[in-house]
Design a protein that fits this description.
The chain is mainly α and 128 residues long. The protein has one domain. It is 74% helix and 0% strand. It has three helices and no strands. The longest helix has 35 residues. It is elongated, with a radius of gyration of 21 Å.
């Protein structure tokens, strides 16, 4: 049983490491793209940069939450650790939702906005 817990602790740390690396490399890639792709205009480049950076953070947070869950539930499932895990997951869930709002411009439970095509006269066409 001790071997299993030690193995799960290593797996949890490996998943945490992957999460941190995703955030770091995602930030570096987003910054690289921002610095060398500025021909579309400053405002558009900055918006794309923020979205790329937020996506990297979101993906990294998912891995960090998974690592925390594995280590807390399998390695040391005390009531104190579970409460701390609950708070961490709550904070990271709030951060994920806020970042998704930043990236997509809508809350996760909202449907994507469908854009209707315009005619030559400027009126909207309803397609059903």
């Amino acid at each position: 049983m001790a071997y299993y817990r030690e193995l799960m602790d290593w797996i949890g740390m490996a998943i945490d490491t992957i999460g941190v690396l995703l955030i770091v490399f995602g930030a570096l890639i987003a910054t690289w793209r921002f610095l060398f792709r500025r021909q579309e205009g400053q405002a558009k480049s900055y918006e794309v940069y923020r979205q790329d950076l937020a996506r990297a953070i979101l993906l990294g947070l998912e891995f960090l939450v998974a690592g925390d869950i594995i280590r807390t539930v399998v390695v040391s499932p005390t009531l104190d650790n579970v409460v701390v895990l609950g708070l961490i997951v709550l904070i990271r869930t709030f951060l994920s939702m806020a970042l998704q709002l930043e990236v997509e411009g809508r809350w996760p439970w909202q449907r994507p906005v469908k854009v209707r095509p315009a005619t030559l006269s400027g009126e909207q066409i309803d397609k059903k």
